[in-house]
Amino acid sequence: ETGVTQSPTHLIKTRGQQVTLRCSSQSGHNTVSWYQQALGQGPQFIFQYYREEENGRGNFPPRFSGLQFPNYSSELNVNALELDDSALYLCASSLSTGRNTEAFFGQGTRLTVV
Amino acid sequence: QQQVKQSPQSLIVQKGGISIINCAYENTAFDYFPWYQQFPGKGPALLIAIRPDVSEKKEGRFTISFNKSAKQFSLHIMDSQPGDSATYFCAARLSGTASKLTFGTGTRLQVTL
């Protein structure tokens, strides 16, 4: 186990609704990244948070937003859900933004939008 | 624009055989190349990683070969076992970033008895 935990594990939402996914990073890790993994695809980088600040963003619209808290846990919020948002959402934590660090993933949250 | 290309899409290997998965990248600013293993319903698990100043790295049955001039790297799984059946992703990370990874499209490996 990586020590990265995500909740909930599964979620079903209706198109147009809003959703919040949560991630607890590995102890001591101060950087959290979120990824979207569509079925049969590789994970796609959404954004990264370092010390409560967004520190890089992938090609995702503003309705994807996030937060990082003082204990380095994080939330991913998605507004105005679309059918194409159905995917496995992964959280990865790492020690810092430095060179010598590894990223460890949680088990993911499976989001289904109907 | 896909920056990390992975092949093959799927692979069937007999138990005891060698599994080989290849990746190619475009951005020379990448400075760290991990491989992840993912089982159904689970998150990716870090398997092995290499930096471009090293041509080969071996950990147990898993070896990464890296060719900087060709911008290619590959994963070799020696003595493949049924328990290795999973999806494998190569990835690349830009210099100065922690967990901002660019992933390949994945290879589904099946090891048969």
- The gyration radius over C-alpha positions of chain A equals 13 Å
Which structural class should the secondary elements of chain B be placed in? mainly beta
Measure the end-to-end span of chain B: 38 Å
The profile of the biggest β sheet of chain B is: 6 strands, mixed
- List the helices and strands of chain B in order: EEEEEEEEEEE
Mean pLDDT of chain B: 93
- Gross geometry of chain A: globular
Radius of gyration of chain B: 13 Å
The chain pair with the largest interface is: A-B, 34 and 26 residues
Q: What is the helix fraction of residues of chain A, given as a range?
A: under 10%
The total beta strand count of chain B reads: 11
| Contiguous runs where pLDDT drops below 50 for at least 5 residues of chain A | none
User: What summary fits the major beta sheet of chain A?
Assistant: 7 strands, mixed
**Helical residues, percent of chain B:** under 10%
Describe this structure in words.
The complex is a heterodimer of chains A (114) and B (113). Chain A has no helices and eleven strands. Chain A is globular. The model of chain A has no long low-confidence stretch (mean pLDDT 92). The termini of chain A are far apart. Chain A is mainly beta and 114 residues long. In chain B, strands 2, 4, 5, 9, 10 and 11 form a six-stranded mixed sheet that branches. A five-stranded antiparallel sheet of chain B has the order 1-3-8-7-6, with no helix packed on it. The model of chain B has no long low-confidence stretch (mean pLDDT 93). The A-B interface holds A 2, 4, 6, 31-33, 35, 40-45, 48, 50, 56, 90, 92-99, 101-108, 110 and B 6, 31-32, 34, 36, 41-46, 49, 89, 91, 95-106.
